[in-house]
Predict the 3D structure of the following.
Amino acid sequence: MANNNFNINKTLALMAILNVLLAMLVVFITIYVFAFNVQYTSLPELYLLPVISLLALSGAAVTLTLLRPMVAAHTSRLSQAEASLDDLNKLNNTMRSQRHDFMNHLQVVHSLIELGEHNEANAYIDKVYDQIEKVSSSLKTSIPAVNAILEAKRQAAERMGISVLVEINTSLSGVPIPDWELCKLFGNIIDNSLNALSEKASEDFRSLTIEIFEDIHSFKFKFSNNGPVIAQENWDKIFDTGFTTRVRGGEGGMGLAICKNIISKYNGKLWVISDEVETVFEGFVPR
């Protein structure tokens, strides 16, 4: 992807340079003709030279001011698509692993029951069910990319020792936000929550709750964590580009600004409320 970005930027820069060189060449020809060939200046074609020069300069300006942002947006989509595909592959591997182990689990339970170890069988089933339920909780929407990123973030959180609860009560069918932007929205909010929770001592209980639901008016989401409190005077600033409340090192200040821009683009709202108990990022987008 990095090489593709470099090649696209290099092509755009070359186009702009060629346009500028063309404009300079036409200007030079125009000056030369009018300065040293006055007898031909009555020809109407000569007056097209300044127009051609202006068009060439305009082409360079368009290339730099319009195409670059368009390519940047397209590149962002490709990057998110790659990330989503990677998440889908990981989710697929998890599901295949569970399927592969299913018969083994049944054999263990069957053997424990035959031996009369009913309590052990019950405890074993609980453990297996808990693992299956964790994955299944992320598979309730009709958008595979969203399911994949939620599962990927859940697994990442648990590797950090963070307890995660996922509650999805909507298929997200008909949500106006495109899949790739929805993944950016949820992914950045979850990452922000995980970063906040990483500020707490590892021996402390750390939790993240993800809720996605809907009503007759809108699609809603709520991400709650028990990380450090965000001062009320920063509740609005936290969505500004470059602003961060992180104590430890690392880049920050971009993710929530991106989320705010996505939500605003689809006429939704995003806000945060924080106290000593929990910090909640909540928002909605109209149907």
About this structure: Residues 48-114 form the longest helix (67 residues).
